[in-house]
Amino acid sequence: MVNRDEANELSQLRRLLPHYRSEHHAYDELLAADTGHLKSWLRLLAWGEDHEQMRPVATLTPEDVCRKWERVKKRLLEYTEAAGESDKRRNAEVDPIPVIMPEEQWSHLAKGIAQRAHLLDLILRDLYGPQELLLRGVIPPELVYGHQGYLGAMRGSIVESQPMLTLYAAQLCRDVHGQWHVLADRTQGPSGAGYSVENRIAISGVLPHEFRDMLVQRSAPFFAALRDSMNRHAIPCDELALMVLLSPGVHSSAYFEDAYLARYLGYTLAQSQDLTVRGGRVFLKTLAGLKRVSNILRRVPDLECDPLELVPSAIGVPGLCQAARDRQVTVANHLGCGWAEQPALMAVLPKLCRVLLDEELLLPSWPTWWCGDKDSYQFVEHHASGLVLRDAFAKKIDASRTMESFSHAEQARMLEKLRRQPWRWIATKPPNYSTTPCWHRHQVVAWPMVLRVFATHVQGKYEVLPSGIGRVGAIPDQLNETLVSGQMSKDLWILGQRPVPMSSLRRPPTSSLEVRRTSFDLPSRVAEELHWLGRWTARAEGLVRHARYCARRLSEERDTDNLPIVQEVIEALDVTIPNVLKEASEGNLYEQLQQALVDFCFNQSQVHALGNALIGSRRNATYIRDRLSRDSWQIISRLETNEAATQVEPAFGDVAPLLNHLLNQLTAFAGLVAESMTRGPGWLFLDIGRRLERIQQQIHLIEKLLIGGQGRTVPVLEAMLDIMDSSITYRYRYLMNIEIGPVLDLLLLDQANPRSMVFQFMKLEEHLLALTSLDREGLTEQRARIQSCLSLLQLAEIADLTAVNPAQVTTAAVAPVNEYGLELMRLMTEFTTVIEGLAEYITNRFFAHTKATHQLGENTR
User: Fold this and answer.
1) Cα gap 68→17, rounded to integer Å
2) Which one of 187, 255, 581, 839 is least enclosed by Cβ atoms within 10 Å?
3) CATH architecture of 236-328
4) Coil, strand or helix: which one is 485?
5) Crossing angle of helices 822-842/776-795, nearest 10°?
6) Which class for 628: exposed (0-12), middle (13-18), buried (19 or more C-beta within 10 A)?
7) CATH (residue range 367-428)
8) What is the pTM of this model?
9) Residue 860, pLDDT above cutoff 50
10) What is the model's pLDDT at position 405?
C-alpha cells in the first residue's frame, strides 16, 4: 500500500518526467511504489545542471531535468574521449543515468549472490573431488558426463585451502513483482568487472557532487580483496614470480576490458603465446628470458587453455593442465569451472542447496525445467506452447522465442528431438525484464535492463562487489544472458547510510618496494608489437609526407611540361601506380595523376597504399592497448582514411584535408613517444623500428628519384627535401640555390639533421648498445655492421656521390641524367643489406623464434 509520502514523491517524479512510461508491462525501477528509494531518485534529479548545488524539487521543471541530462551526456562523451576510450570495439556507450539501489535492498541481494557463489564452489569441489553428489544421485550423471565442459583430466586436482571459484558473476533480472532472479551463472573467466570500474570512473567523474552526496559505496575494496585472494593462494616460489591476467587476445570482444583490469590490478597482461611450460612450471617469455609465473587470473575458456590435453586446435598453453595439477601454478578460476555455466544446473540448484548448505536458495534462478527429470518433462510437454525450449548445455542463446511463435512443423520437429533425448533439453519461461530510466534522444525513457554483479572469495567466504554493470536496450529482445547484449551499459550505485571512506588499490606507503629503473622482463610479444608499431607509424608518416607533396604539386602545377616530373614523384609512392598510369594519354594525364593519388590515399585494398600502413599502425597498437598511454591511444585510434572525406566516393579535394589530419596525428604520436615514453626496452624496440623504416624509405627515394630518375632537376630535389622534412633547414643555409651536392649532404651526411640517414644509423648504434646485455655476441656483430655504415657515410665525399661515371659519358657534351651516382648506388646497396640483416636478426632472436621474416606491406599480422 502506498503511503502519503510515497504518493507525493511519485507525483513529483511523474511531474518531472511527464513522458516516462514503462511500455513492457514490467516492474519499473523508478515508478514502482514499493521500491523505498523514490527520494533517492528525486535527489539525483534535484542537483542542478551545473552540478554545484541541490535545488528544491518543487522548483524543478521537466525542462530542467532534460537540460541536466543533456549536459551530463555531453560531459560523459567528452570525458570518455579525453580518457582515450573512443575505441569502436567498445560494445556500447555508457548511459549517464545510473541505476540506484538502497543499501537495505542491496544487502539481501548480496547475501543471495554470496550464497550462490559458495554453493557453486562446493558443487565444483565435489565434482572434481570425491563425487559424492553423483554417487548419491543428487546430481544426475547426464549433467556431468553429457557436458563437454566437465574436464575429467582435472579431477583430483583440488587444493583444500583454495577455492574453485575465485571470481564469480551472475546475470540478473527482476520479474513483474520485483523479485530478482539469476538468468545465468558465469564461472570460467567472468567478464564485466573491468567495464564496471570504467563506468564507475566515468559516471562519478561527470556526477561528482551527486556521487558524494548520495553516499555511493566504492568498488576499490572489492578489487583489493580480489588481489589479496590471488596473493594468498599463490604458490610459494623461491624466485620473484609474476601474476598475469591471461586474455584470449585482441580478437576477443572483452580484450579492452582485460587490458584495463590488468592495469587496474597491477598484473601483467598476457596471451597464451606469451606463456610456456618448462619443467612442469609456467613461465612468461620475456626479452631477458623466462620469468616464473605463480598466479594466472584467466579470461580464456576452459577448453582453450591447453591444446595438449583439451582441444588440440586451441591456441592455449601446452602443459598448463599438468602444471595446475602439480600445483606449480595457481589458475583462477580453476580449470573445469566452466561446467557450472550450463543452464540445466539451475534446475537442480535448489535441491543441491538444501543438501549441501541445509538452507533454501536465497536468490532463485529464472524458472527452469530440466527435461531429464520425469516430472519436469511431463510439465514441459503439457505447457510447451508458452515456454522457451533450448539446449540444456549451451550457455547462451540468441533469442527467447516461445514454442507458440514457431510454425506447427517447427514445433513438431523440436518436440520430436525432445522425446528422443529429453536430458539434452531445458525449458524456461520467457523473461520479462524490469525497466529503468535511460537517456535516449534527448529524453528520459524506460528501457528493459539486465544486471551483472560479481563476487570474490575472501578467507573462506564470498564478498560481493557493491556495484555492477547494467545492460539496457529499447526492446526486451535486445537483451540476453551475455554482457554485450543491449544498446548501452549503466553503472550501479549502491546508496549507503553513512559517509564512505576513500579507498584505493595502491599499497600503503609503509610497504617495502625494490627500486627499479628499467627491466628487460618485457614480454617478447609486446616488444614485437611495439617494434612494428614504430615501423608502421614511421612508414605511414613517410607516405603521408610524400603524398602531401604530390597533392600540393597537382593543385598548383598546370604546366604540362613539368607533369612528367610530378608523375615520377607520384610513381615513387606505390608500385601499383605506374601500372595505372601506363595507359594514360597525354590529354588526361593530369586527371589520371589526381585519381591515382586519390586511390593511394583512400583505397585500403592496395597492399602498398597509405590505408595499409594505417591499418598496421592501429592493429599493432590494439595488441598492446594496455602498454599505451591514453593520449597515445587516442591519437592512434583516429588514424582513419575516411575522416576527412566529404563524399561517399572521395575526390581529389578530399586528399589534402585527409593528409593534413593524418600528419597532425602521426607527428603528435611521435612527439608523445619522444617526450613521454620511458626509455626502457619497449621504447628501444619501437624506436629501432622507426629508424629502420626511415632508412628504408630514404633508400627507396634515392634509388627512385636521384639515381634512377631525373635527379639533377630542381623539382625532384625540392621533392626530396620536402618529403624528408628538411626544406626549411636547406633554405636557411642555401637560400633558393638548390643543387644536388648540398641536398645530399643534408639528407645523408649531416649528423645535426634528425632526418638524415647518418642520424638514423647513429641512433640504431646507440639502441643496440643499450640492448647488448640481452645477446652480447649477436648484438655486437650487428653493431659492427651499423658502425661500418656510419664509417662509409662519415668518409663519403659529395663529389664522389655526384660524379658522373666516365665510362658512361657519351660524345655529347652532357652525360645522360640517369648515368651518374654509381658510388651512391653502391652505398645504398650496402645499406640495404645491413638493415635487412638487422631486421631479420631482431625478428628471429627476440620475436618470432622462427626463420620466417615479416615483410612490411603484407597484411598478415
Assistant:
1) 13
2) 581
3) 3-Layer(aba) Sandwich (3.40)
4) coil
5) 160
6) buried
7) 3.30.1490
8) 0.83
9) no
10) 83
